């Protein structure tokens, strides 16, 4: 690591106190994630980000962390290796917790703790002051829509629709004294998270833990929220009385795209509040809204053995997850690196808007990278960024 520059912190948002990161933290995965598709996609995202730094002054650091990400992918995608690694990691986290004192760190929050003591307020009686007015904050852009959720006094609050772009909100208000609060393994996570979608409204239901009467509901469009204080997430404080009266948490969502959702149990103790870690798969979910499509593509040389990129012909195969009429797509090539945008390289070919393809009948075309050297790479983009709300382009290795 050169000088004071910390690539883990600057590039991957891993603070110094969490170094060296375990494989799950390195890939930004929930602890003990076992879904191979989730692991593989997380590794691809990390590697794509790190490759963007290969051309700078920190190229050596980028390659070092790329090797670590590759090792993490190989280990976690192998069930036997992952089982051994999980057992060793659990032992290390438990051991480090015994040695530490003071406020809990990330490792401590991910290690089992003693059961939660009973709260000071019995669950059979819920005073009105336990439910502050539901948090609202406007989207960076967009207009108010019709009312769905209800305030404490019975009045309606508007649901705000996010048309496009990243979700940017400030942390939710809280009725606890400062500090705002912290995650705790003593708080049980919600269970059996279920999501339904109809007429542009998403309804979320879950099983409430005993003695829990409020939850933080956090939503993002690009990745799972990093907690109730995530400034890039939309967060609402939702009470059990609201849940019972409305039949769940209801929220108006855009017609296309994806939503990453986590529900955090919340408990107030005296002048502080705590919330659950949100690390279990039963309290988080990825919601693919209507019309969402994954498009995978592969670039292969034809014939397979070539000596010059200028004279070689390549084949592009585009395979959708469902029957799809493609928007206009642009294949961009670049010497000595991967293009980061449609303008960051040379346009090799365009796929006409309206081209129809299916999982059984993919779209196939050929091209020649005439003005590129032997060390080139290419990436497929949508010509219109608005299509990314319902379209995800994935390159097969």
Could you walk me through the main structural features you see in this protein, from its secondary elements to its overall organization?
With 397 residues, the chain is α+β, with helices and mostly antiparallel strands. The chain folds into 3 domains: 7-109, no CATH class; 128-288, Immunoglobulins (Immunoglobulin-like); 293-395, Immunoglobulin-like. It has helices at 7-12, 23-26, 36-51, 59-77, 79-99, 106-109, 240-246; strands at 144-150, 156-160, 182-183, 191-198, 201-207, 214-220, 234-239, 249-252, 258-269, 272-275, 284-288, 293-302, 313-320, 324-325, 329-335, 346-351, 356-357, 363-367, 376-382, 391-395. The strands form 6 sheets. Strands 3, 6, 7, 9, 10 and 11 form a 6-stranded mixed β-sheet that branches. It has a 4-stranded mixed β-sheet with strand order 18-13-12-20, with no helix packed on it. The chain has a 3-stranded antiparallel β-sheet with strand order 4-5-8.
Task: Present the secondary structure layout.
Blueprint: H1 7-12, H2 23-26, H3 36-51, H4 59-77, H5 79-99, H6 106-109, E1 144-150, E2 156-160, E3 182-183, E4 191-198, E5 201-207, E6 214-220, E7 234-239, H7 240-246, E8 249-252, E9 258-269, E10 272-275, E11 284-288, E12 293-302, E13 313-320, E14 324-325, E15 329-335, E16 346-351, E17 356-357, E18 363-367, E19 376-382, E20 391-395
Parallel strand pairs: 3-10, 12-20
Antiparallel strand pairs: 1-2, 4-5, 5-8, 6-7, 6-9, 9-10, 9-11, 12-13, 13-18, 14-17, 15-16, 15-19
